[in-house]
Amino acid sequence: MSNPAPDAKASRKSLATLFFCTAMPMGMWSVPLSNVFNAHGRGHLVPWVFATTATAAFISPLFVGAMADQKHSPVLLLRWLTAATSLTLLLTSAALAWAWSDAAVLICAQALALVALPAWSVTSSIVFSQLHDAKAQFGPLRAWATGGWMVGCWVVSFVLRADASLLAAVTAAGLWLVVMALTWKLPMIPPGEVVQHRTWKQILGLDALGLLVHRDHRVVFLTAALYCIPLAAFYPYTSRQLHDLGVENISAVMSLGQTTEVLVMLILANVMARFRLKWVFFSGIAICVVRFSLNALNSLPAVMLGTFMHGFAYTLYFITTQIYLEERIDPKWRVRAQALLAMLMSGVGNLLGYLGGGWWYDACTTVVDVPWPWWCPPSLTVKITDWPRFWWGEVGLTAVVCVFFAVAYRGRPRTQ
Q1: Residue 375: phi, psi to the nearest 5?
Q2: Which residues is 368 bridged to in the sheet?
Q3: What are phi and psi of 367, to 5 degrees?
């Protein structure tokens, strides 16, 4: 089949399908990951596995930048990345199923993160390149990605019954191959302008550090990194708490957060038109304080309500941050500003959040010996987590971030 013309435009339907199918396997593996590792006796590796995505945020720009220097189309790049993601996900599943060493499992997980993380950013760049009016068209298309994540969670819980099974990972690996197949339906987009002699700072987006001289830019970037530290506790530990509360369809319950995410994306433009940007930012962090407080109550209705509020807590800050960069940053710096934001969030913030959260979880978990009758073997060892203590710690950390932003961010009058 011949390649389409370079100036061809993909239909809205094909772009929505690409977003939907890319997010679906991401949700199918990311949400049940914690319980899958627990079921295979590797629960102690969960913080480190999640941290692989953070370390990949430092390395992947080099990986993708090297390919971009060779002037490859982003469509070809996505095709290779999705194939590699499918392969490394199967390899990680095999490492768990065949009881490989902890080091081998983490190596496989790190390889998966290195190729899966840039796949999403490349998908977004392809969609952006096909839009005539990105501000008006991107939001509804991005909502299809959230829908794909939700459907992936529902399939895991209601169809596969695999909330703690590697069947979720194997199915997700197959869906990554579906995304690879979709790339043949996209126009062969030419690569963007490539600088022939880029420095390491340019590849990593670190030359955008000059943007931090501006006070509000500095506060927005720094708050994003700090906010990611407590927010990193959502997927690894909410799923464990739901398991302890006796929930079976954990992935489906976790998808409640995406329902509000879609809602907020659809109304965000109206919200930003009515309120100052500062209060949109602030409300996202403040809602997260309330959400974690509900988790601290450690009852199923409260945890489900807190999960439902995730979409508000995430979208009102992070999607608004992307819009902030689009509107307040000089166009020639926007790409590098987005790269710096991704590094601070996915790299610095998530790394501290996953590792720090793992330490705090261990501190809130005790090992209890459950005695058996005298005619049975020795006592059974059970781990019990003090969930109220764990989540109140996250509440305190989020509240500090909220106060910091409220005091430090100035903004500009609505008349501007």
Answers
A1: -85, 0
A2: 382
A3: -100, 125
- Looking up tokens 């102690």 gives 44
Residues whose CB is less than 8 angstroms from the CB of residue 64 and which lie 6 or more positions away in sequence, other chains included: 77, 118, 121, 122
Do 268 and 334 have their domain in common?
yes
380, containing H or E segment: strand 380-385
Contacts 24+ apart (CB under 8 A), 362-370: 364/389, 364/390, 364/393
Over residues 339-343, mean pLDDT: 76
On whether both 97 and 223 belong to a single domain, the answer is: no
Residue 4: its pLDDT value, please?
44
Look at residue 12 and tell me if it is in a domain.
yes
Radius of gyration, alpha carbons of the chain: 22
pTM: 0.75
388 and 255: one domain? yes
Is residue 414 predicted with pLDDT exceeding 60? no
Predicted local distance difference test score (pLDDT) of residue 193: 47
The confidence score (pLDDT) of residue 69 equals 42
Q: HSE, CB side, 13 Å, CA atoms: give it for residue 248.
A: 4
Total Cβ atoms within 10 A of residue 4? 15
